[in-house]
Amino acid sequence: MAKRVQRGLGRGLGALLGDVVEEAAAQEANQAEPEVPAAPVDEVRMLPIRLIDPNRDQPRRTFDEAALQELADSIRAVGVIQPIIVRPDGERYTIIAGERRYRATRLAGLDEIPAIVRDWDGQRRLEAALIENLQRDDLNPVEEAMGVRQLMDEAGLTQEEAAKRLGKSRPAVANLLRLLTLPDSVLELLKSGKLSAGHARALVTVDRKRQIQLANLTVQQGWSVRQLERICAQPVKPDAPKPRVPRDAQISELEGMARELFGTRVKLDGTTDSGRITLYYYNGDDLQRIWDVLELAKEGH
Fold first, then answer.
1. Looking at residue 59, what is its pLDDT?
2. Set 35, 70, 91, 99: catalytic member
């Protein structure tokens, strides 16, 4: 079986959270050779699940239930191999990274979970949570874009700075953030997986009305990204002008007579068989004049 290669993301989670594997090895080495001074490492504690709260700033908004159940089955069998990272919050703890493992541990029915406690500021917590999700279990494109936007807003980062944090190019981050300009209905299709990130990148190049139309057609017709890109690149044909229907001379004459009679603008739409007459007034005097004319017509004058 091919070895799974993890995506690199700049400094990565190891630089932010520390390498738990190396720390465990260091602990074993310290136990074997106590006379050698050891560098301080984070202590892994067993914390009660009931004292741990999810992170409200967690970039991920949805978790695949089937994948969670699979992880829970594994945890029930062999336990949690990699500790989660938490920060103290009074007498409780808030997750910095590892919410998926936390959820699966609860699902497995365990009362405790191995954890490393770190008192990080908001920027490092958010950055760690985002990078952990990106490395371990892909966010959908909308969640990823929202997470990057949140990181930029809360940490005061430019696109270039955020790109360096995530090990991405600045154009890649810019293209990701452009997805958030799509209409809500298109974003929902993207969240549900009915549209891919490639489809979405093609749609941002067209106007808003076409974005919705082409997104729905892509889902209905099963267009590939290349097909949609070709369609989006095609120039839009302007709507053909409506043919002008010659106006009946009697209608024009009647409109002129009504304008003179009422002393205001009059518009007749239709034919000699059916249509409508519109009288315009612009102040109280205009309305009173129209009223007077109608009263006289009613009295037979």
1. 57
2. 99
